[in-house]
Amino acid sequence: MPLINKILAALDKHKRLEITLMMGLSCALSVALAAGRMYFTHTVLFGFLLWNLFLALIPFAISSYLILNNSKIKSNLVFIVLASQWLLFFPNSPYILTDLFHLKQRSLVPYWYDLALILSFAWNGLMLGFISLMDMQSVVTKRSSKSWGWVFSIVSLVLGSFGIYLGRYLRFNSWDLLSHPLPLLRSIAGRVFHPGHHSQTMGVTITFSAFLIAGYVLLRQVSKMKAEV
Q1: How would you class 89 by CB atoms within 10 Å of its CB: exposed for 0-12, middle for 13-18, buried for 19 or more?
Q2: Contact 57, 128 (CB under 8 A)
Q3: pLDDT tens-place string over residues 21-69
Q4: Is 18 helix (H, G, I), strand (E, B) or coil?
Q5: How far apart are the first and last CA of the chain?
Q6: Largest CA distance in the chain
Q7: pLDDT digits (tens, 9 = 90+) for 167-192
Q8: Which are the contacts of 33, defined by CB distance < 8 A and separation ≥ 6?
Q9: CB 149 within 8 A of CB 117
């Protein structure tokens, strides 16, 4: 309990308690929808959504740690390591949007229920990603400048979109960079140095980049409007 109280106090001090609790409740709704489906159908068909949501929570956890401890992290090397870990897992957040590919009519569950279920997970993944990116932009801005903060955000969204392609179509995972680095690096190199041979890669990356950048900028504007009221 003392540890939990300490964490809650730190979150409240940095004005993150409310958003953390709200995201917790939103994620709990997703878990409840998935659990309800499993209970009534006696299947774990959409159990992978729970794992995907867990992966989406990792960048949020890393960025939250940086927000709470940025003033204590004096070493740029430590920050770069943490930021790299964040970037490695960041694509898992918007990746859940592509789980809509699994939506189809099934006999055991109404179509609308599966739609709500997947949308719930996709929404939480997207929001966790955007909130963690806002955190990282804030930290980068404080450690360098406002311009570099935006550069970091845009580059992260583009790389995240490329990561969505790698995960959805080539079936790579974040940890493959450590467990199977050569196949992953070969696939990346082939698409970076020969983009003309990989039209699908370019199409997915550009389309999702535009979508995510537009959504992120809009969210920041909404947040700014709220702050100015």
Answers
A1: buried
A2: yes
A3: 999 999 999 999 999 999 999 999 999 999 999 999 999 999 999 998 8
A4: helix
A5: 36
A6: 57
A7: 999 999 888 887 888 888 899 898 98
A8: 113, 116, 117, 120
A9: no
